[in-house]
């Protein structure tokens, strides 16, 4: 899938997202299983961008519970409004954190994580059913380009739920 994409070494972040989105749509568009779709989406993003950690948490019994991911071992459960993931769940808004050490209440699953973006997954009744969480081992690695395209990718997942 993503390894078959022809992307020049000089491709910028936006060009990579634009090349990846149709591939994700083709990969998950006919699949009804949420876990399978989350797994392939996490793998595609992780492979394309080489993020430190790329994955999902799903809301279960009033906690975020670890779902498909790529990267090192992660926190298994996160309470509402705790850390970046819990805060994005509570606010139902994307959160970009340039330096996780400066985020009040950050949950350090790994000391190698330096910056983070979390995008909520919304159900048709406007409740959050999960989050996409991406960590980088570089400071200030996420911006509005990531926000725009990751929200678009989450919209694809939401439309299939």
Describe the model:
The structure is a single chain. The protein has 161 residues and is α+β, with helices and mostly antiparallel strands. It has one domain (12-160): Beta-Lactamase (2-Layer Sandwich). It contains four helices and six strands, in the order ααβββαβββα. The protein has helices at 13-28, 34-49, 83-91, 144-160, and strands spanning 53-60, 63-70, 77-79, 95-97, 115-122, 128-136. A six-stranded antiparallel β-sheet has the order 3-2-1-6-5-4, with helices on both faces. Helix 1 packs antiparallel against helix 2 (34-49). It is globular, with a radius of gyration of 15 Å.
Jot down its keywords.
4 helices; 6-stranded antiparallel sheet; Beta-Lactamase; alpha+beta; 161 residues; 36% helix; globular; single chain; 6 strands
Topology of helices and strands:
Elements: H1 13-28, H2 34-49, E1 53-60, E2 63-70, E3 77-79, H3 83-91, E4 95-97, E5 115-122, E6 128-136, H4 144-160
Antiparallel strand pairs: 1-2, 1-6, 2-3, 4-5, 5-6
Helix pairs in contact: 1-2, 1-4
C-alpha-based Rg, rounded: 15 Å
Mean pLDDT: 92
Counting helices, strands and paired strands, the structural category is alpha+beta
- Give the helix level as a range of percent: 25-40%
What is the count of β-strands? 6
Strand fraction equals 15-25%
What is the second-level CATH architecture?
A: 2-Layer Sandwich
Overall tally of structural domains: 1
Kindly report how far apart the N and C termini lie: 22 Å
Using the coordinates above, name the CATH class.
Alpha Beta
**Which H/E pattern describes the elements?**
HHEEEHEEEH
CATH topology: Beta-Lactamase
CATH homologous superfamily grouping: GAF domain
Biggest sheet character: 6 strands, antiparallel
**Lateral arrangement of strands in the main beta sheet:** 3-2-1-6-5-4
**Helix run count:** 4
